[in-house]
Amino acid sequence: MKIHPTAIIDPKAELHESVEVGPFCIIEKDVKIGEGTVIESHVKILSGTRIGKFNKLSSGGSYGGLGQDLAFKPETKTYLEIGDHNHMRENVIFHRATVEGKATTIGSHNYLMGNVHIAHDVIVGDHNIMVQNTMLAGHVVIGDKVFISGSVGVHQFVRVSDYAMLAGLTKVVKDVPPYATVDGHPGAVVSLNVVGMKRAGISADVRLAIKRVYKIIYHSGLNTKQALTELKKDTNPAPEVQKIIEFFESSKRGVVDHRFVSGGSDAE
Question: Which residues are catalytic?
Fold first, then answer.
């Protein structure tokens, strides 16, 4: 185990023998860190944090701090759990959960750039990219293969579904449906995330079906309930279409509106 002599590691922390710890790091008790993880300088990892295999934690990060909730009692036993093969860049801040026995959870293969803030009780899936200064408030849920641009703020309890893209400086106060690009203050759907869908190997036929679904939901003159009823007349929808229907049906905050953009940005 490569541990810099200036690092302070509690003897009750559990580190795999292959973990590397850089200068001036602090690792508290009740921390577990898996195989192949590299921790650069000035990183603080607090009690209740679980970090998986082959992660890279760049300098200045803080992991597992107390949730920023005035009602939270510090003695409450909660966790921060991070999966495998993530790269966390400089000065990120992740807080542990506020509900007894629960965890703020980050999946695997995520790339989170500098100053990203993951608040208490957040759930992040896999293969996501978050650009500089992304801010996720408490209880936010991020799906898989989401791209969040710089300085985006996501309101507490919002869900952002798979393959969504959030444009830079966007304010997100309602749920973001799958395959959509959202921009503005507050955020609204401005197009489909065509690039993301193509990279994911989603066929042209399925992309066309997704486009049709959103036209019915947003532009048919039907309210959301009526639009979903119309869509469910198809008894054998593509899985991607079913995902959209289920997302709208399960939303508690409501789903972001659509904004018309000149030039037809929904076109492929």
Answer: 120-121, 138
